[in-house]
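Intended use. Records like the one below are meant for learning the mapping from a protein sequence to its folded structure. Do not use them to infer anything beyond what is encoded.
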Amino acid sequence: MVDESPIVLIDVPVLEFHGLDDGAYVNESLNDTWESMGRDFTLVTLPGIGHNSQNTGDIQFVTTMLRSWLEMQKSRQ
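Structure written out for the chain above:
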């Protein structure tokens, strides 16, 4: 069964981390994901990292990126 409901735009800023060696989602699943975003969409790809990239990758990098992104969002309000 395929859900044919229209996609509702997400009207909040989105930060997505994606491990490029993720076995749960193929890299092609990233194609056009930004089209469903009504506002800012930031995609951070992590080479050599699998699923749960925020926990299994370079945690310091992810933490620093997340904090920087949150500060940027805060300054835009």
